[in-house]
Every structure is written in C-alpha cells, then in structure tokens.
C-alpha cells in the first residue's frame, strides 16, 4: 500500500466559522417599506414602482458609481456612498439621511429564519463564531436587538480597519481573535469575490446563492454540515 503524503492529509477540522452580515445572517426590510416609512406622504403602488425604478437606474450614474468606490473603508465613505445614491432620485433627496439612518437601525434588519438555529448548533458543537463584514457602523447593537450577539466572540468591521474584503487582514484578524489558524476557519457569505476571497487568505469559504428575501430560510444548514456536525 502506498504511503500517504503530507499533501494527501485530510484538511484540518473546522474550529471557527466567520459570517458575513447582510445577505448571509440578516437582510434589511424592502426598499418599498423603507421609503414609505421615510416619506411624509402616502405612496401608492404605481408611484412606488416609479421610485424603485429610478433608484435602480441611478446606480448607473457616474457620480453614484464613483461614490461607491471604497465605501466600506470608513464610516464617512459609507454614509457618502448611500446618501449620494438616495439623493440622486429627486423625490428621495429630502429623506436621504433618513433612509441612511434606517441602515443603522437594528429594527429594520430581519434575521433569516434559519440563522439562530444554525448559530446555536455550531456553538453547541464547540465551533467558535465571528463576524467579518464590509460595513460602516458597529453591528453589535443589531445582533443584540435580535438576541444573537452572545454567539460571537470576534467582531471585524471593515470601517474600523480601513480596508475591505477580500483583504486577508480582516480574515486573519478574526482568526487571531478566535485563537484559530486560518486553515481551521470557514468564511460564510454571499459575495463570490469578497467572501470567496477568504480562500486566498488560507481559509475555506462557502458562498450562498443570491436572492433570498428577508426572513426566509437561507440554506444555512449546509454550514453545520461543512463544520462536520452532521
């Protein structure tokens, strides 16, 4: 029988899982609901469709595109990116700051239906948990509002480190906080380049498909399997 070489050794057991925030564990309420909450006057369905169409179209405006560059490297850049986009629609310009404030408000975020059960199973299985997110504000109040903060021992916000995923600095900082080597960590997110980029930093990565609606099941059961707990 041929001897097993070092390159054929099984991968290290998953000792830590790092989660992205938006689109992975949480999703914010729909823009239709948020716009209705922000505007002082009622908005019927026809007018809302027009507003949403304009908001989508403005993503192609040069000024809006430019404002998105490196938006998560600081709180100031993050605010500028989103308020520039909102204000590009004339009807939304007066409430651009209100719409941005909604982003930071814990009550506007909804955990996916399988978020808590997944976190609980991982924690009970002895897996350390961390958050690594490209974001412009502290996420801990949002997790606390939904009683999910106690699962996590590491919080890595891009704006606090002045860089964005897939910079290895963010992933490696989370691993150090959790006391694990990158090879024993799994990054879970919804962005192929940013979250999948953890692989270049020596971690394993799992990228969720796009398109999940707020409060739906996200398919996080797969993370429990990847951690070897099923």
TrEMBL record:
SUPFAM superfamilies reported in the protein's UniProt record: HAD-like
InterPro entries: HAD-like_sf, HAD-SF_hydro_IA, HAD_sf
Name recorded for this polypeptide: Hydrolase
Organism this protein belongs to: Streptomyces chattanoogensis
